[in-house]
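Folding Query — how this chain folds
Tokens — whole-number codes for backbone shape
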Amino acid sequence: MSGILVVDDKPAHRDQIAEILTNAGYLVTGKASSGAEAITMFHQMEPDLVTLDLIMPDMNGMDLLRIMKGTSPMVSFLICTSICHEMIADLAKRSGADALFHKPISDSSLLAAVSKILGAPHQEKEA
């Protein structure tokens, strides 16, 4: 496995997340704009981490999380959402998310969430 897959239907959010992670030294190996594209890239890439937008037109992030986690349980997932509700956080955790990140995107909070999951950039994830 290698790298991070960023999934968001909004190009500005997708690019911002990828840029923050890349500038911090993480390897972003793919960016997907839809659930269907994300599933294809997920199987091709076998990433270490997937950042998932919760609300997308073709497939919501929670459904996508369940599909991906079902086929690759060792991959880590970070749900990105603008919905700040305890029920969403609980559902994300029960569905297999490793963390929940609230939009609007800030460099420090995104990097804190990713480093908690993956460790510092260029380090192997602990088993």
